[in-house]
Amino acid sequence: MLRWYNLLTCLVLALVLVEMSRCGNDNKATPQDPQSRTIVDMTGRHVRIPKNLSRVALFGGPSGQIAFILGVQDRLCAVTNTLRLSALAVEMYPAITKVPGPRTTSGSINIEETIASTPQLVIAGDVDGDLIGKKTSIPVAYLESSMDQGYETIVKEIRFYGDVFGAQQRAECYVTYLEKTREFLKSRIEKIPAGKRKIVFNGYSTNHLVTLGGDTFLNRHIETAGCINAAKGISTTGKREGMHVGLGEISMEQVLAWNPDILIIDTGTPEDLYKDPRWKNITAVRNRCVYFQPSGIFIWNRPTAESAVLYPLWLAVTAYPDVFSDISLHEEIRKFYKEVFHYTLSDEQVKNILSGEYARTMARPPKK
Amino acid sequence: MIDMIHTGKERPVKAIPHPFALTIAVLTALLAAVTVISLMTGRIFITPGDVIKILVSRFLPIPHSFSATFESVIIDVRLPRVLAGVLVGAGLSLSGAAFQGLFRNPLVSPHLLGVAAGSGFGAAIAILLFSNILITQVSAFIFGVVAVALAYMLSRTYRSAPILMLVLSGIIVGSLFSALTSFVKYLADPMNKMPTIVFWLLGSLNNISNTDLAAVSPVFTVCAAILLLIRWRINILAMGEEDARALGVNTQVLTTVIVLCATCITAASVCISGIIGWIGLVVPHIGRLLVGPDHKRLLPVSMLIGASYLVGVDMLARSLLVIEIPIGILTAIIGAPVFAYLLKKGQSGWSR
Fold first, then answer.
1. Which of A26, A183, A194, B292 is the most buried (most CB within 10 A)?
2. Which CATH code for domain B32-37+45-56+83-345?
3. How far is B134 from chain A (nearest CA, A)?
4. What is the pLDDT of residues B130-151, one digit of tens each?
């Protein structure tokens, strides 16, 4: 009896071992398909993708514009809906409106629509990536959250995209541009004494009281511009129900206590605040230093490649016009789009970027 | 009147035996105290002496020995916020108490007939299309009233048991508008508009200005006055519709008036402060614990308690942390245990 059991156990063990070794061999012996290659995604996972990557579904919210930077927008087969709603993205590449947008926000993706767009690879954040991975057999490359990160993540992200699309040169062109801009700002900002640094409050939403705290990417951008984030002492990156990480609401009185020199809004107009008695004693309002957040392909208060270069530049020039009297924002924006996106902006487009017009028109459906 | 309610099979209500006038006096003093403390508390420290001087200087010609910034903090920021706390707290508690009497159900809140769902939708669609605070508030008010009007009209299409039908219609309309709100959120740009909608729906007194107060306080005053004037009639309705009709009361007109006033008050609250839960549900129970189920006493007492409660909670919301705590979270954290305690005590004095 005992012997019979032993025999059976041995048999099962042997089978398991054989199976396991076969699996191991399978994994090692992958280069059998010469049409594919392995990439490492931003979270360190290995993903096999076709060498001729021509159909990619891009589900990272703010990072969708990287396809434009790399000049591979024609290889997108599905995108985040926001990218199709971006007025500037549509002007730069009208065909984007014909690309389906099955993803609206993190966690809400139309899976069938995604499959119907026949992607060879899906690039997505953790929630969306898990969803696609669980329900389809499409390979998924994961992105890293960039809300609480600095420039390193943006650089890592664009190099990762460059690797995926085989557009390393365009990626490096961006990285060089970013470093050049930061070096330039640093050299000018150094001369401004610590006591003269301006305090900036980003007052978003309809009440102008929703902001991004000291543990967000925006804090780094503000520091790069030689300013101080009024809300640097609070942290806002924890997960909050129903909204994107990185936002927190501040009481009106707290903003009065911080008394910022510069106020940046993304809703309404500066005139509304100049008229509002509650805001009248804030230095920014008294000195008429309330600005509407500029917006390109994406609004600049989000962790995008575009904002990493242009937000600090815009803020620095706006805050310290004397230090940057030789710099024309108009020309700088045109230069950035020319060199990084290989796109020549018209005067009208530059004006729309600086006035934030592209953020206002964002919710409208794309022009037919 | 009280005797009339207490007849029949209900167990006797243990109303606390001190005179009603004393209760009112104590609660009024409490409200005054909370209001004064609240005006002196905030992220900016202003000495109580300065606060009093700033307030008095509005009415009496005394020397301005305080800074203009402090004056603005008190007059333009703190005062409207505290007054809004008084109005919204009193208004929601009053309409909650009236609704609980009208529907003869202790679990009813002023949002029962879909006013919050309607207002939420109105605000969400306005944020999506216009991003303008004034349009958002007007739209919230209009859609709140529209939702209840729809529920009311729907209930009139049935012949039997109008009160029950009103409740069911409210649930239908509420669900419809909640679904529409979710749809708007789904359409909204997730980076920009969606957080705005979410923050709005969470409820906050953060954005109240003196103009807002001036716009909604007539609605509050008129509707609250009507409800207070007819408050003894709610007692008759609370006996049941058939009994009320037997006593010669036109229940349909009475129901319409109560629903209209309570809805306008709630919609006016929601349009300036977003959706603040729990107050309209819990406060009438505390009121019943103090003065019993007679609506003649319950309505004014609920208003006083609700006002003190919201002013106090809002003081915590704006001064506890650097970041603003959404007030709906605080009212629920404080309201839920209080409610559980009241239920356990079984003394909420519900008469049926």
1. B292
2. 1.10.3470.10
3. 10
4. 877 888 899 999 999 999 999 9
- Per the prediction, chain A carries an average pLDDT of 86
Contacts of A121 (CB under 8 A, 6+ apart): A47, A49, A50, A53, A55, A56, A57, A138, A139, A140, A141, A164
Scanning every residue of chain B, which has its alpha carbon at the shortest distance from the alpha carbon of A280? B72
Distance from CA of B129 to the nearest CA of A (A): 8
> What pLDDT score was predicted for residue A149?
65
- Please provide residue A83's backbone torsions phi and psi, each rounded to the nearest 5 degrees: -65, -35
Of the pLDDT bands very low, low, confident and very high (cuts 50, 70, 90), residue B5 is: very low
Angstrom distance (rounded) from CA B214 to CA B218: 7
CB contact under 8 A, B324 and A256: no
pTM: 0.78
Whether the predicted pLDDT of B267 surpasses 50: yes
Q: Looking at this protein, which amino acid is placed at residue A170? A: R
| Residue A240 confidence class, pLDDT cut points 50, 70, 90 | low
A264, containing H or E segment: strand A262-265
Q: What value does the CA radius of gyration of chain A take, rounded to a whole number of Å?
A: 24
> Are A244 and B195 an interchain contact pair (Cβ–Cβ within 8 Å)?
yes
Instruction: Please answer whether residues A158 and A138 qualify as being in contact, where contact means their C-beta atoms are separated by less than 8 angstroms.
Output: no
Inter-chain contact B191–A244, Cβ cutoff 8 Å? yes
Select from A85, A146, A205 the residue whose CB has the most chain B CBs within 10 Å, as the one to mutate to test that interface.
Answer: A205
